[in-house]
Design goal:
The protein has about 325 residues and is of the alpha/beta class. The chain has ten helices and six strands. A six-stranded mixed sheet has the order 3-2-1-4-5-6. Helix 5 runs antiparallel to helix 6 and helix 5 crosses helix 8. The radius of gyration is 25 Å and the shape is elongated. About 25% of the residues are buried.
Length: about 325
């Protein structure tokens, strides 16, 4: 890989004797990093592949440094790899770093340099976030994969119903779990021929969704016994409880129960990530459920069940 640097004379400097600050701008296939010395001078700027092997080869040879990167698709595993190499990793909140997010000069090299300078001055300027663990991310992917199948099934069902209505007929039954090829038996021969493969695909998706549901139940039972306590809250099932636990993961990160709603998407100021008004019944109900699921004794973690209470909203 060709080396690109604005300080060619300093590239051979012995990094082992310096306290370095590094800004890492992650890309999908390649990333750009900028290395600053103790005086804040750029000593190296270079590209590397966005792969675990490339990260270990480049940063494994460097002394323990402060490395700043932005949140994104690759930031969870990159931060874990760099932490295993004993670097101080700061994951900046991409939306809150206005100097980068709202900059008109969108350049990987410039962004890496900006991250490095902000990390060198004050890490709090980067609004650092904490990524969930690898295990929690893997378990949460099961839930998200199931959600993807549910969305696909909904889209196919809407397509089947729309095509049927446009032909002056209707599909019997509204339960998506029972949507199969038999539903087309009462339709005209033309619609049966057109919709039967579609309904068979919907039935197959329902079977895969059920398999995911069984897997989620197994994960909750074997790895997260605290799910049973959260299910005591009215309106909370295994899927919601497990998603709640995996999303928060660390109960100590919040001081008050009302902060939890903002973290998962429903804020107290009347806005949510999906632009749902506070007058929306589902949004207000969600906030109440989050508060009822909150641990009042916040001196403990989720797995210390004997000291955890799920009653009322925390103060």
């Amino acid at each position: 890989m060709k080396k690109i640097s604005t300080a060619g004379a300093r590239q051979t400097r012995n990094f082992r004797e310096q306290k370095l600050t590094i800004g890492l701008d992650l890309g999908d296939r390649s990333s750009w990093y900028c290395v600053l010395d103790e005086a804040g001078e750029v000593v190296l700027e270079q590209r590397l592949g966005t792969t675990p092997k490339a990260m270990k080869e480049v940063f494994g040879k460097m002394p323990r440094s402060r490395i700043a990167l932005e949140t994104g698709m690759h930031s969870p595993w990159v931060s874990r790899v760099l932490s295993e190499l004993e670097h101080e990793v700061i994951v900046a909140h991409a939306r809150n770093v206005r100097l980068i997010g709202e900059s008109r000069r969108k350049d990987d090299r410039f962004d890496a340099r900006t991250l490095a300078r902000l990390a060198r001055i004050d890490p709090q300027l980067l609004a650092p976030v904490q990524h969930r663990s690898a295990q929690a991310q893997a378990h949460l992917m099961v839930i998200r994969a199931r959600a993807g199948l549910v969305r696909a099934r909904t889209s196919l069902i809407n397509t089947a119903r729309g095509l049927t209505k446009s032909y002056g007929e209707r599909l019997r039954g509204c339960n998506p779990r029972n949507m199969n090829g038999e539903k087309a038996q009462g339709l005209s021969p033309e619609l049966q021929a057109a919709l039967e493969p579609l309904l068979v695909a919907i039935e197959s998706l329902s079977e895969r969704i059920y398999e995911y549901h069984q897997q989620i139940e197994k994960i909750a039972k074997e790895s997260y016994p605290q799910v049973a306590r959260l299910e005591q809250v009215k309106g909370v099932g295994t899927l919601i409880a497990l998603t709640y636990i995996l999303t928060l993961e660390d109960a100590q990160r919040f001081r008050k129960s009302r902060d939890v709603g903002s973290y998962v998407g429903c804020s107290q100021d009347g806005e949510t990530r999906g632009r749902v008004s506070r007058s929306c019944t589902s949004a207000r109900k969600a906030i109440r459920i989050y508060e009822r699921c909150w641990c009042r004794e916040r001196t403990t973690f989720w797995d210390r069940l004997e000291r955890t209470a799920i009653c009322g909203a925390g103060g």
